[in-house]
Amino acid sequence: MNAGRRVAVFLVVLSLSAPARAQELSVSLAAGSFRASEEAYREIYGPSVPFSADVWLKLKGHLGLAAGFGRIGDEGRAVPIGEDGAEYPVKFLRTSIPVVVFYQLYLKAVDIRIGAGLCAHHYEETWETVDLGFKGNKLSSRFFAAASVALLGRLSLFGSATYDTIPTGAGSLLVTEVNLGGVQILGGISFRIF
Amino acid sequence: MCGLLLLFSFPASRGPLSLIRIPKGAGFPSGVLSRLQVDVRQELESCLLALADREDIALLRRNGVRFSVLARNAAKREILVVRTDSQAALAALRLAGQAIAVEPGTAVFWTETGSPSEAVPAGLPRKVLSSRTVRLDLRPAACSGRPAPQAAAQDPLVDMIVDLVATSNLISTVQSLQDFQTRYASTTNCEAAGESLLSAFSALGLDDVHFEPFAFSSYTSRNVVAEKTGQTYPDDIVIICAHYDSTSPAATRQTLAPGADDNASGTAAVLEAARILALYPLDFTVRFIAFSAEEWGLFGSRAYATAAGLAGERILGVINLDMIAFADAMPEDLQIIVNPASGWLADRFLDAASAYGPVDATKTVDASFVYSDHGPFWDNGYPALLAIEDDPLTTPYYHQTSDTLDKCQMDFFTSAVRASLGLLAELAQPIREGYPRTPVGLSATPVIYSVLFSALKVVRVTWSAQADAAGYNVYRTNFSHLGYVKVNGSPVIGTMYSDADVRTDMPYYYVVTAVGATGLESNRSKEAGVVPDVSPTTAVHRTLSFRPPGVGR
Questions:
Q1: Do B452 and A130 touch (CB under 8 A)?
Q2: Which ranges of B203-321 would DSSP assign to H, the alpha helix?
Q3: Are residues B223 and B292 in the same domain?
Q4: Distance between CA atoms of A168 and B517, rounded to whole angstroms?
Q5: What span, in angstroms and rounded, lies between the C-alpha atoms of B491 and B535?
Q6: Tens digits of per-residue pLDDT, A147-158?
Q7: How much is the pTM?
Q8: How far does the CA of residue A169 sit from the closest CA of chain B (Å)?
Q9: What's the mean per-residue pLDDT of chain A?
Q10: B480 and B413 inside one domain
């Protein structure tokens, strides 16, 4: 499904949810580990540490909306093709703004949310010692599952697993078309505002 | 792949061979010829001459290669390439035997009986076909050319060396060779001239002087080979050569062929260069060679260059001097003739002529001008130039009994020798006392570094450490042996330099010098180069941009 059609479907879902009355608002902060789908990414940067801040709005029934901000940044080394001679450090940064619809249910004391949505990404890959780099933007699909357990008052322990697929359409000698997606496992806290 | 010299070789067992002509030009099937292992025996400006059996011919036809058959049973014949500048010359050649024009000014020639060399009319330059498959230079145009001309820089040491050229020595040598009356190869006088040259070289204190015998037609003769061994690069050789045999019309050549200009002049230059360079330690080995049987069809140089090619000798360049003493008008200029792969050598000669002659010189790139001892070196893939007084020749004494010392113009002759010696010295690199030693072990390796969205080409230059070096300078050029520019700022500490300021579609050539503690800089190392053999994707080209030289180390 191309980005335009994904946006259209998402807007339909949002419009169906809009009349519902907000019942709960919470925010979460989390960090964890990112495993890229792309082997070349893992070769250059290894496992990366993502950070995420999200706002969760529970609507009527089991549906809800969430939006937030995510960041994955890492440092690595360019891969030599041929005899290894020198090191060229490089930096990678991906910032993401997800907007998702989730379905919420409770299993005893555990609040579980599963959902999907769209995510806008901006990414940059920069050589540190050579004036060479690449920037791009991409809208992609996101799938996630999250859970929280009440800890103290409005505070909960929070965890999530997120899967993105981000085909960029660009590449290099290492990869014909880079997919910047992968799996993020995050842990943190959630705070219920109301 | 840029910079590739392809060796065409032929299958071990073959049937009757035909001589075929394969035209060059648009659609020249170099890749197909390489794949089919066509046995090319002569490269000319507009065509190749090759030997082919029935199977080869069928293969060529199947692969759509255009060709024409010139002669059948070619392996049994001694076939010459003969210069025929006029219809009259071609007609005269046809009267002497079988002659077929293969391009304007060039014919192949053979006789059904006897030696075709002796049958060729006097005055027509000739060359016997290579005795083995020639190496063709199939480099793309990006690998040739030259940088924008700059004012030729004079090296004070080389200037001092060329100042040692003595006109009196040149006169003396030409006179002594002329005094043999004839040096026509096959005569005892020619062999005696060879012995006198051997003695002359032997008296100079060189590292090695010897005869190299060879057979031609039904005779034998000897090249005289002298060597000054290089101290830094003993296996890398620069050659200065000339033929010492002579000729004149058939009626007189057995008894009178003084050959003062052709080619006692070149031989005297080689001997004078040997006398002078014997006094200096050199980085590179220099061979001083006097060839015989050139007038028969380059048999002496063919034997030498073929053996060198088979032995894999590393010959950096050949300076062939043939007729450098006659001036039809002053100031006379030298003609420097090269094939495309030897263009850099001519450019260096032009610079040396300006700096050290001084003498005007003109470069001509003509793969069909194969009629002197540089030709067999071209056949074997070596860079070589011919320095000659005129092309076409203007001397009325060419191959005549009147080609004597009194017809030589000594100022022009001396300047030509100074220019030749200047280039030879620059190539061989005299070692300066008190300076750091010349770096060795240079290699240049292309490395592509890639990340997700972009790639960087880097040339990794490494060399061996010199004990007396405090640092090193790295020089680079896009044109082999020409126009080096320093790419490092302060001297490089260590023995590695990564050059990230490179494009993926250009060749790069490097030399390194050692810098001593007092700032004195050594001679340049032997050149190492990389050619564009790895090409990142188009997307990468689009994103590549570089900082000024100096980054990425």
A1: no
A2: 265-277, 299-311
A3: yes
A4: 54
A5: 31
A6: 999 988 899 999
A7: 0.80
A8: 10
A9: 88
A10: no
Do both B424 and B461 map to the same domain? no
* CA pair distance B483, B479, nearest whole angstrom: 7
Mean pLDDT, range B511-520, rounded to an integer: 96
Residue B142 contacts residue B505 (beta carbons within 8 Å): yes
pLDDT tens track for B498-509: 888 888 778 899
- CB < 8 Å to A40, chain B: 452
Whether residue B358 lies within 8 A of chain A, CB to CB, comes out as no
**Confidence band (pLDDT; 50, 70, 90) for B201?**
very high
Is B540 an interface residue toward A (CB < 8 Å)?
Answer: yes
Taking a contact as any Cβ pair under 8 Å apart, which residues of chain B between 419 and 478 contact chain A? 445-456, 458, 460
Q: How far is A121 from chain B (nearest CA, A)?
A: 16
Q: Is B277 in the same domain as B133?
A: no
Which residues in chain A have Cβ-Cβ distances shorter than 8 Å to B448? 80-82, 173
Q: Cα distance from A42 to chain B (closest Cα, Å)?
A: 10
Contact A172 B450 (CB under 8 A): yes
ipTM of this predicted structure: 0.85
Query: Domain containing B513: what range?
Result: 443-543
- Rounded Cα distance, B474 and B472, in Å: 7
Residues B52, B177, single domain; the answer is no
- Decide yes or no: CATH 3.10.350.10 for domain A3-192: no
CB < 8 Å to B551, chain A: 129-131
Nearest neighbour of B460 by CB, restricted to A38, A85, A180: A85
> What backbone phi and psi angles, to 5 degrees, belong to B289?
-125, 130
Task: Pick the closest to residue A96 from A124, A71, A75, A66 (CA basis).
Answer: A71
Task: State pLDDT tens for residues B138-171.
Answer: 554 444 556 665 556 789 999 999 999 999 999 9
Q: Which residues of B touch A81 (CB under 8 A)?
A: 447-450, 455, 534
Q: What is the domain-level CATH number for residue B397? A: 3.40.630.10
Reduced DSSP (H G I as helix, E B as strand, rest coil) percent helix, strand, coil of chain B, to 5 = 25, 30, 45
Contacts of B455 in chain A (CB under 8 A): 81, 172-174
Asked if the C-beta of B534 comes within 8 angstroms of chain A's C-beta atoms, the answer is yes
| CA nearest to B334, candidates B398, B411, B241, B244 | B411
**B430 near B421, Cβ under 8 Å?**
no
Of B240, B299, B271, whose CA–CA distance to B177 is shortest?
B271
Report the gap between the CA of B532 and the closest CA in chain A (Å).
14
Characterize B118-149 residue by residue with b for buried, 16 or more Cβ atoms within 10 angstroms of its Cβ, and e for exposed: ebbbbebbbbbbbebbbbbbbbeeebbebeee
Asked whether residue B215 is assigned to any structural domain, the reply reads yes
Let me know whether B84 and B12 are in one domain. yes
Overall average pLDDT of the B477-499 stretch: 92
| Residue pLDDT, tens place only, B64-102 | 888 999 998 888 889 999 999 899 999 999 999 999 999
Contacts of B535 in chain A (CB under 8 A): none
Set of chain B residues whose Cβ sits within 8 Å of the Cβ of A44: 451-452
Q: What total of structural domains would you count in chain B?
A: 3
Judged by CB atoms closer than 8 Å, whether chains meet at A131 and B540 is answered as: no
Residue B436 lies in a domain: no
Q: Which residues of A touch B445 (CB under 8 A)?
A: 82-83, 85
B273 and B404 fall within a common domain: yes
pLDDT band at B16 (very low <50, low <70, confident <90, very high): confident
A131/B545 Cβ within 8 A: yes
Contact check, Cβ <8 Å, B534/A78: no
**3-state secondary structure labels for all residues of B222-250:** EEEEEEECCCCEEEEEEEEEEECCCCCCC
Query: Which domain-ending residue is among B69, B102, B137?
Result: B137
CB contact under 8 A, B452 and A85: no
Residue B146 lies in a domain: no
Distance from CA of A181 to the nearest CA of B (A): 13
Any domain includes B464: yes
